[in-house]
Amino acid sequence: MSSFLNEIGCTFDIATDGAKAFEKIKSHNYHLILLDIGLPKLDGITVAKMVRNELNNSKLPIIALTAYSFLEEEQKNYIKVFSDILYKPFSFEELIKVIKTGLDPHPLSKP
């Protein structure tokens, strides 16, 4: 995915676990977050909840990436913290669509 994001002109950071992801989110002003639900240490649902609650950031687009085609009832309630969800495997066209949709209310360039 990194090479594809580079190819379409995105700048990004990578975190290898949820704790590192949350630290990066706290210290940077991201326009959009792609967050895997199955991250080690802190799962993506927990990280997204922390962004929404601890950082009080309800406007940051957070896109969930998951290999789970179905979610437990308890997890479905947590999914509300995400702006959108992509189920793996997904196409690059689907990825571009959710990125564009997520960035639409937060355009990178000013009119």
- Separation of termini? 30 Å
Low-pLDDT residue intervals, each spanning 5 or more residues: none
Rg from alpha-carbon coordinates:
14 Å
CATH architecture: 3-Layer(aba) Sandwich
**Helical residues, percent:** 25-40%
Figure out the total of helices. Answer: 5
In the CATH hierarchy, what is the class? Alpha Beta
Order of helices and strands: HHEHEHEH
Give me the CATH superfamily.
Response regulator
How are strands sequenced across the largest beta sheet? 1-2-3
Q: What is the CATH fold-level name?
A: Rossmann fold
Number-wise, the strands total 3
What is the domain total for the residues?
1
Question: Secondary-structure map with pairings?
Answer:
Layout: H1 2-7, H2 18-27, E1 33-36, H3 44-53, E2 62-66, H4 73-78, E3 84-87, H5 92-103
Parallel strand pairs: 1-2, 2-3
Helix pairs in contact: 2-3
How would you characterize this protein structure?
The protein is of the alpha/beta class. It has one domain (about 1-105): Rossmann fold (3-Layer(aba) Sandwich). The chain has helices at about 1-5, 20-25, 45-55, 75-80, 90-105; strands at about 35, 60-65, 85. It has a 3-stranded parallel sheet, sandwiched between helices. Helix 4 (about 75-80) links the parallel strand 2 and strand 3. Helix 2 runs parallel beside helix 3. The model has no long low-confidence stretch (mean pLDDT about 85).
Q: Can you give keywords for this protein?
A:
Rossmann fold; single chain; alpha/beta; three-stranded parallel β-sheet; 111 residues
